[in-house]
Amino acid sequence: MESMKRVSPLAMSVWQLRLIFFMFIPAFLLFFFYYPQSLVWKLCVIAAGAGFAFVSLLWLPVKYLKLSYRLDGNTLYIRWGVVYTRFSATFLENIQYVSVSATPLQRIFHLCSVNFILAGGRMSIPCISAGEGEMLRVWGSANAGGGKKALP
Amino acid sequence: MFKRRPHFISILSNIGRFLILLVIPLIRGLLVSLRGGFQFWLASAWMDIAVVVLIAAMGFAEWFCMGYCIDGGCLLFWQGILFRRVRRIPLDKISWASIVRPWYLRPLRAVEFRADTPGGSQNESDFTMLLYKSDAEYIFTVLDRLLPSLKAPPFAPREYRPRGFYVIILSALTSNSLAGILLASAAISRIGDLMGKEFSERIYGTLEQLARLAAFGVPPAAAALAYLLLGGWALAFLANLLRNKNLFVVRRANSLFIRGGLFTQRSYTLDLSQVNYLDIRQSVSTKALQMQSAFLHTAGYGKNKEDVSALIPAAHNRDAQRTLQMLAPELVPSPRSIQPNFGAIMKFLLDAVWCCILVPAASWLLCRLVPDWEQVIRYIGLIAMVPALWFLTVRILDFRTSGLSRDGDTFTLRYSQFFYLHTVVIPKERIVEICLRQSVLQWGDQKCDVLIYSRCEGRTRHHLKNLDRKECALLFDLPGYVPTPKKNFFALLKRRKDESK
């Protein structure tokens, strides 16, 4: 039995950069509305710092370590989650179509997200390499609805 | 190929879309009344008449440009005056069709015909039109004839007519106080629009006086609330009873024909190969009476609130099983093979226990904050404890009956959702996604929650709590998710010692 495959290590870089970018918004609002060194300002800075440290040093690494996937015969397995670990599986005949998307940040690192659209749901693999994403898309589309083709 | 237009009565329903144009005469009337008087308005009334005629003409034009036909195994229909829309639905993709005969359309021999496929909108049927009764029955016959031709062996039709008492039980179970209250308030408001605001205010005032008279020592506001809920439930019960009366089910080779309704008759035909799952529901009261209701889930069926959605309205457990064997032998539940362990009891009861604690706590706090309303708050708190204790009872029953099993390629899921216990029988090909979810607390003993997503237009989830992860992975043929044995250092040391000896 093959083991689960992890996503690209560059995913951590994408998530960390996204976190830093989003931290600019509360930082801007804080700077705009509150006087520096006031009590509220100090409390917000401490809370933002603690939140940033928690997400950056604990949440994201755990998310990366748990995120993995595998194609095994006619079954797609995806494992993900932080507090709740989810082991999702779908049979390939349930896949209606596959879409590949990439944000500007993902494109810089040559990464993409693959979305498997099911009849009544969807499953996603974020931040895998662009080449692998395209391969998954071609293979998923060929196998959608029960057609069988080997992975190139 | 026959081409038809819809029934001419649909001109009235088309007009509804253009009533927004009435804002022109309304604004004009307002401006005129500010400037001149009645004479001035009358002199220019031609504009109002022109707008009304325009609305009627557009309704007629919409009807004239609408039509449908059956063309080479497809249902083709078109509509639109300026923006033409043509839709082609293959007949073999239609999973469900219905004919609804409201009592007010029967003299005109008009029916509402609806058909749906697994794709398209979650909230509306793919094809809805007011047709002549003969045309709708012709399409129905074509659909019905098409389904048994799908390589089905000879099959003797089986009929089922539930007893009136069972229909009453179903109506009582599916009645909702809120739905009844909304129905009543909409009706009273409508009467007020037609007969003047004073009339609707008089009705509300009379209800208030009745509540005061019948309070029986209870605060009048609380009594009014209780009677409102009771009255709402009674109205909803009556509406459900009229909808489910004369329920009649026929099983043919590959299809089910269902008919019901007293004043508004509804007929449905379902393609059995498109059925997603069978849902057997029990509440606490029906569980105590050893009764159950069965509902079929398929794309389109039961989408409209007025639809008849029950396969078996309510029956004794033994009778229900026998009827299911007759109507849907492919979807009979199997006995439990995987069930939660005793240690999982708090996972089932925690939500309900919180409700039972928070309701009296909130009442106590509100009594302290607003002492003038203490009597009303105490009464409402007492009333609110009833659903909280009911919920706790449901969760206790869920813990005793929850589980998973498999019979060939059909899975039986037993779980609870809000105030109902569900037994869902679902074929493997209708399962879209299986998710085994583990929290941090479940890692130790390798238990998990099982989330099953079934095939439908939206997203339907079935949630089973705290089952063994290995057993679930093997049941669903997911060897990739069977947990590896834990690497126990002391067991490894002992094994190495034994090997060296």
The gist of it:
With 152 residues, chain A is an alpha+beta fold. Chain A has four helices and seven strands.
Description:
The complex is a heterodimer of chains A (152) and B (501). Chain A has 152 residues and is α+β, with helices and mostly antiparallel strands. Chain A has two domains: 7-64; 69-146, PH-domain like. Chain A is 47% helix and 29% strand. Chain A has four helices and seven strands; from the N terminus they run βααββββαββα. Chain A has a four-stranded antiparallel β-sheet. Residues 147-152 of chain A have low confidence and may be disordered. The radius of gyration of chain B is 29 Å and the shape is globular. Chain B contains 15 helices and 20 strands. Helix content of chain B is 44%, strand content 25%. By secondary structure, chain B is α+β, with helices and mostly antiparallel strands. Chain B has a seven-stranded antiparallel β-sheet with strand order 7-6-5-11-10-9-8, with helices on both faces. A six-stranded antiparallel β-sheet of chain B has the order 14-13-12-17-16-15. Among the domains of chain B are: 1-81, no CATH class; 95-160 and 247-305, no CATH class; 173-244, no CATH class; 342-400. The mean pLDDT of chain B is 80. In chain B, α1 packs across α4 (46-64) and α7 crosses α9 (220-244). In chain B, β2 and β3 (74-79) form a beta hairpin. Chain A binds chain B through residues 1, 4, 70, 72, 75, 77, 81, 83-91, 93-94, 118-121, 123, and chain B through 118, 429, 431-440, 443, 448, 453-460, 476-481.
